[in-house]
Protein 1
Amino acid sequence: MAENSTVSSPVSGDNAVLVERYISALFSLAEEEGDVDAIVSDMLNLRTLWNESPEWRFIASDPRLNCESVMEIVKKVAETAKVGKITTNFLLIAAQNRRLHLLPMLINGLMDEVADRRGEYRADVRVAHELTEEQRDKLKALLTAAMGGKINMAVVEDPSILGGLTVKVGSQFIDASIKTKLDRLERTLRATA
């Protein structure tokens, strides 16, 4: 699984139901076809493409674009990303139903589903500056020991946290960012003033 990815916002409401349905259908089909690893690989390619292409994000998110045009572009994107038939069909259905804007959540949800079935954990990590390979390995080892299972880290640089890091694994959240520490200090100073 990926060591680098975007961390998407949690999904709620009607979108949460849609995301769950899409994930369930895709996972069931992948399992039925014995293609889970290929689908995971496809999703990682699509995630990379999503992160690196503002044009793709625009096309996937703009409701003003003609559905047929979007579907033609999706075919080209699928070819560029070298994804398989199941993933291509999945993308076309999402495009036809105007759900491509949910792609990051669908990818993350599918990765979580696969990880869960394999007894793995996903850790969404935000850091102010890029981690060295040694820092990544140490963090992964600490998280593996704490969770008692394999960890798949999604690391995102977020300069707004100033320093330190935040880690989310399942419902657990650790905030060791400099920004949070400074905010706490400011609140304490204001309370004592």
Protein 2
Amino acid sequence: MFDPVRVCHILNEEAVDYIVIGGVAAAAHGSALTTRDIGVMPSPGLENLERLASALTRINARIRTEGDPVPVRLDGRFLQGIAQVLNLTTDCGDVDVVFDAEGIEGGFPAWNRGAVRLEVGDGVTIHVASLDDVITSKRAADRPKDRAALPYLESLRDEAGH
């Protein structure tokens, strides 16, 4: 059910300006660690958020809760009101729309500076956070799963010569 490539394909079709962050970004850089959601950080402009809302609607996005998902009518204004993270479940799996991630101050422009374009499955090109930024963010988040991943991600970075 979890299909991050499909999520990116839909985002690309809707011309959303976004960066993949978190575990899927690490996987795009060669990490073998698994993740159950895709984190995307959109450029915050209203027109871009309208395109994002359209993409999320196409994949039946609902707010993720402890119980059943909650339907939501998504539009750019709604998304502009999200301060940090909007946790969603979709037909393609869980999607976290992140506006302010731990460890990197400055939101999208700061993350965008180090981001790179990579091709993933089925010829889909994604804009993905740098491995250094993923590591910095995971270190700042300091959750048990992030602490467990750090030695591996740092080793991956060191092997790549960063």
Protein 3
Amino acid sequence: MLPHMETHIQHQYNDFHEVYTEKFTHNELSNTLFHEAFNFNVKGKKILDVGCGDGVDLAIFEQQGAKVFGIDPSSEFIAKAQTNNPTGIFKKGVGEALPCEDAKFDIVISKWAMQTSTDVPAVLREMARVIKKNGTLIYLTKHPFLQFLEKVRDNGHGVDYYQQQIVTSNIYSGSIVLKEPTHTMGEYLNGDFFSNFELLDYYEGAEFPASEQLNGDTYPTFFMVKARRK
């Protein structure tokens, strides 16, 4: 992640961490799908959440006997996550340079966080580095199709899908305004990804009004990947 972008994201989430925590429960579909992907026992497993936010997902896994770890660029969210998971280990950091040793975790997760990076392939390489062989990766993130529509909304027609730009996202009926870099699907599912992982499941869905419904159209606002480390 570029230094200025890391600082921007840290301050962005610090500024509205309380509202974000309150509104995040509105993501009912994505939350349900995310937790349904855990159709296996996590007791005794080491789970890392990249972009852990307030740690509410990890708290569920901790109650099921998992050993939980979290990374987030926001100091405010790290403090909340530690409160929600007293026995967990939480560090301030970014996905492009995880402060973790190689092959440490049985499971690595990320939800609504990877799209904040300017270098998604680097995040995926780091995730591959810290997952044990045959370990599980589950991530859910903003769909590039939504970001492309936001790019058109911000800049008008004639924009380039493949060129990364910062766009505005109005979420939770406009109560939170985000500035995030755009991505292509190929950044998430590239050659490196398939060299490191076996794809187990893929799902894309629409969740309004958690995401803004541009022009009243229906389109995917997020997608989720479940994979196994080779």
